[in-house]
Structures are given as structure tokens and as C-alpha cells.
From TrEMBL:
Its EC number is 5.3.1.1. Keywords: Cytoplasm, Gluconeogenesis, Glycolysis, Isomerase. It catalyses: D-glyceraldehyde 3-phosphate = dihydroxyacetone phosphate. The lineage of its organism: Bacteria, Pseudomonadati, Myxococcota, Myxococcia, Myxococcales. This is Triosephosphate isomerase. It is found in: Cytoplasm. Pathway: Carbohydrate biosynthesis; gluconeogenesis; Carbohydrate degradation; glycolysis; D-glyceraldehyde 3-phosphate from glycerone phosphate: step 1/1.
Length: 254
């Protein structure tokens, strides 16, 4: 089944409001003509979501994503943002379970699962991040760890719900390190994730996009995304420069 490539830029804790708006204006100009060929989204910091949404407008080539969410709709959760709040500023996608959230902020498979369900209930499409550490890869535990995260994050979801989300495989050892999984390593894990999705959702798995994340650059993006089960990229540092990110997006076009 042909799956449209999906490239999302995760800006992490970078960019003021003015810098964010300037960047999306550059990206809109750089990606003219790409709409329809590749699905593109950017995930700015929370403070810039509404201004970026306004700058993107409706029906353009770039969609809006958030970097995280709380699983409750509202309440005494100082510093948190809910799925309905994200929907209110026109977020179409949201990352959950990013390795930095897991490592630095105690994210668990259980909380990822709650966040996925909250996002789907609010009409926002989750991008569920999974991946192993260097120690786990060297111990031969990659597929077991990724499998645990996929099963835990998607527990209790129907096949229809699984069909609405994206999975992002991001080997922790390749994030921000300059190291990148080889195309063979990426394809092996992506194929394993696809097989697990088939167990969980049947034929729906063939329509689910699985992104690769981990030091994606203009130089390696096209080769990575040429693999049969690599359906796009979750881009970190390279998404902060319009020229680099637009080259990665264009590298997704076959």
C-alpha cells in the first residue's frame, strides 16, 4: 500500500514567538509546490503555537503539531496543557513519548497510552515515539524494548484508532549525537514495528506511517526514507533551519 511520506519538525525548546513565525514564513516559501506530495508538520514550543497557527493559515502545505500534552482535560496541573487546549489553537498532531520526555521527565508507557487516548478523543493525531538506548541496542534488546513501548502505548486502542496515529522510531543513541542508524538498521526496526501493528490492528497496519527520527539531515534523509517501511522523518535540529528542513522534505519525494 502506498503511504504518503510524513515529515515533522520537532523544534524542542528553541525559538521565540518572533523567531518561530519568521521560520514558518521561510518554510512556506521554500515548500511551495510540495503540498500533496509530502505531508509536513512543525512542532514549535507551546508559547508559539497560536502565532504559528495564524502564520500557517488553513489549507497550506504545513500543518501544526505540539510537542507534548497532559492526558486530563483540565484541572490542577500547573504548567501542563490539555488536548482540548491544543485543539483550540488548531493543532492537528501531537508528539507523545519522545525519548527526552521518557528519560528526563519520567514518561512511562502507561502515561503515553493515556495521552494517546486523550488526543484521539480531542480529534488530534498522535505521533507515538519509541526507541532504545545504546546500552539496550548493544545488549540485543532493541526489538524487545521497542515492542514493549508499542504495545504499552497502544494498549486498548481499536484498529480504527491505531489507523489514525503515526509511530516514530527514534533510537535514543542517535538523537542529537550526530550518529544515525544505517538504512538496514532503520528498516529492520520499522519492519518489526509494522509486524507488531499487524498483530494489533490487522490490515490497518499497512496504512500507518512509521517515521524515523535520530540525527536526520539533508545528507541522509532521502536514503533513509527510501526504505520500504520508513514512511517519513521526525526531525530535530535540522528542522530549525528552513533550508535544511525543506531539503529533507523534498528528499521524501520519490
Amino acid at each position: 500500500m502506498a503511504r504518503k511520506k510524513f515529515v515533522c519538525g520537532n523544534w524542542k525548546m528553541h525559538k521565540t514567538v518572533a523567531e518561530s513565525v519568521a521560520l514558518v514564513k521561510e518554510l512556506k516559501a521554500a515548500l511551495v509546490g510540495v503540498a500533496g506530495e509530502v505531508q509536513v508538520a512543525v512542532a514549535p514550543p507551546f508559547t508559539a503555537l497560536k502565532p504559528v497557527a495564524d502564520a500557517l493559515g488553513h489549507g497550506g502545505p504545513i500543518e501544526l503539531a505540539a510537542q507534548d500534552v497532559h492526558f486530563e482535560k483540565q484541572g490542577a496541573f500547573t504548567g501542563e496543557v490539555s488536548a482540548p487546549m491544543l485543539a483550540d489553537v488548531c493543532c492537528g498532531h501531537c508528539l507523545v513519548g519522545h525519548s527526552e520526555r521518557r528519560q528526563l521527565f519520567g514518561e512511562t508507557d502507561e502515561s503515553v497510552n493515556k495521552k494517546v487516548k486523550a488526543l484521539l478523543a480531542a480529534g488530534i493525531l498522535p505521533i507515538v515515539c519509541v526507541g532504545e538506548t545504546l546500552a539496550q541496542r548493544e545488549a540485543g534488546e532493541t526489538l524487545a524494548m521497542v515492542g514493549r513501548q508499542v504495545r504499552g502505548g497502544l494498549a486498548g486502542l481499536s484498529a480504527e484508532q491505531i489507523g489514525r496515529l503515526t509511530v516514530a522510531y527514534e533510537p535514543v543513541w542517535a538523537i542529537g549525537t550526530g550518529k544515525t542508524a544505517t538504512t538496514a538498521q532503520a528498516q529492520e526496526v520499522h519492519a518489526a514495528i509494522r509486524g507488531l501493528l499487524r498483530e494489533l490492528a490487522g490490515g490497518v497496519a499497512d496504512s500507518v506511517r512509521i517515521q524515523y527520527g535520530g540525527s536526520v539531515k539533508p545528507e541522509n534523509a532521502a536514503e533513509l526514507m527510501s526504505q520500504p517501511d520508513v514512511d517519513g522523518a521526525l526531525v530535530g535540529g535540522a528542522s530549525l533551519k528552513a533550508d535544511d528542513f525543506s531539503k529533507i522534505v523534498k528528499g521524501a519525494i520519490r
